[in-house]
Design a protein that fits this description.
Number of domains: 3
Radius of gyration: 25 Å
Strand content: 15-25%
Number of helices: 16
Structural class: alpha+beta
Largest sheet: 9 strands, antiparallel
Strand order of the largest sheet: 14-17-10-7-6-5-4-3-24
Helix content: 25-40%
Amino acid sequence: MKKLSLLLFLATWLAVPGGAQPSYSGPVPPPPTDVRPDALRRAYLGRVAETLDWYQSAATPGQPLTREQLLVKLVRRQDAAQVSQRVLELLSGPQSGDMFWMFPWTAVAYLGRDQLTPEARAALRDAWRTYFPMRGDTENHWAMYYTTLYLMAELYPDEPGTTWFTGKSSAENLAEAKAYLIHWLDLATTVGQGEFNPTHYIGEYAIPMLYLAAWAQDPAMRQRGRMQLDWLLADLAANTLHGVLRGPNARTDDTSAIERWNALASYFSWTMFGNTPPPANYGGWGVYFALAAEHYQLPEVIRRIAVDRDHDILQRDRKRSRRRWRYSDVELAPIYKTNYLRRDYAVGSYQGGLADPIQTHVWDVTWAVPDPRGVHNTIFSVHPLSSSQVLQTYFTELPDAMISGLSSQGKPSYDVPDKILGCSPYEQVCQDCDTVIALYAIPAGTRFPHINGYFSRDLRQVTEDPSGWIFAQGGNTYLAYRPLAGYEWQHLLGYRQLTAAGGGYRWERVDHGAQGDRLLYSPHRHNGTIVQAASAAEFASFAAFRAAINALPLEFALDPVPTVKLTTLRGRQIVATYGQPPVVDGVPVDYSRWKLFEGPHLNAEVGSRRLTLTHGRLTRVLDFNTLTVTDQVAP
């Protein structure tokens, strides 16, 4: 029997008995057979209703409503008196949560406009005077902060600064929030999003944009919300394999880096495309999207990009790094991302270096499985960098406590030698279709001067060949992994979250032994990894795949810097040398010519503010220069 994650098990166990089986513990959704627009819309709203039903059914008679449960009652216009009383109770004590407090209470304010009692509305309005939510320091924080500040300033116009925690008037708050949101959208549509492909933080963008689309009074801001939600979901669709978001990711976590399905992104794939189960508890935040989901209509071209894959897809995109405050001559470094999707697997990477210092996932091969829940269907390598100077590049806190404070913030792996999450300035990656070459040149004195290769417990036929290649099979995918320096095998330790005294996080390491995942530990500063993937159907047998890989011309050296010359299974010759642009078939890769999006489905020029979505006969153009959406159906 397949082992489900602990989170999935607990959520299933806690579900209310006697109700309908939640989709996160039910069978994998089959492809829709009725694709008429009205049928697809009903299915979408049905998934939205299931999310709301689950939260409503979790209410315990005689127990106070949670904030999520009272929001569901507001959506369904039920028990207004009970909801108003609960709002008063929740707002009567100290508040916390910063921007994560702001967007749920914005939803309460808008959904309760004509349902809450005058007393409850007054308490909610006054909370925006007495509570001082911090703005945060990340892209998703600011998206939530300014979207909700904008909406609340529209809801309560013409009020003085004495009624707002900012000390600014409604008009001033509105102007500041609008200016930032337009600035952020301008960045995202000209040089790319900083927190690209986030496994969880997609909710922190999709939910605010939905709220703008649903509730903004200004038609232009409503249109921006709708268009940016289209943009985000198109990017999600193009980077999923059967609904599961795969690497690279600017922001992810230790769980989702290896159990690729186990992320909030899967809730959005389930809700929008219906082609994967949602995560346990509907991602936790799914309910906040479901509250206003009826205000959004998924464009058919985006759905088809996600579910209709009749050919291989090669997509090259440009994103950007997190903002750099010091130790860098570049404020927003360009990120060049490659995405190759086939029926049986996906390969993704960016060029290496620093994107976000803590939670970046740089590259991987992810193979398809019939049911992704509890499966660790990926392979990759990483330099486990831990650096105070790197953290200081991106964060403005006092440096002495930067590393030690990360564990209490829910990021326990940053300063451990066996971590598999993070990026490094000493990693350089080259990808051509389904071949990845990762090179490492780690200076002496660097903390953790070694390479960790991740090998899943779900791999089969793992074979260490005398040639130096390591062969394995994942699903219907054959994999060849070539470490360029000596190595040993270690158990990958997991994490168990414990309750810390006084609140916060405390973690315990867990050794799953031979039944768990493994690390290929290579203690050499000049190092490298080559991975070649292929569909099992391309070869008569696993032995035939091994023979084909061993026949590939391969030369490499580690000094003075790592360099590889390889002819791939696809007949392409790659020369990768650390510190130099990769050369493919004799032509150096010129990243300066890369577009914002370039592929069969998503295309945009850098600086254009204009994204063209294409699938078959369908085309949709999102033009932020004119705030227009144009749809075409080819004859």
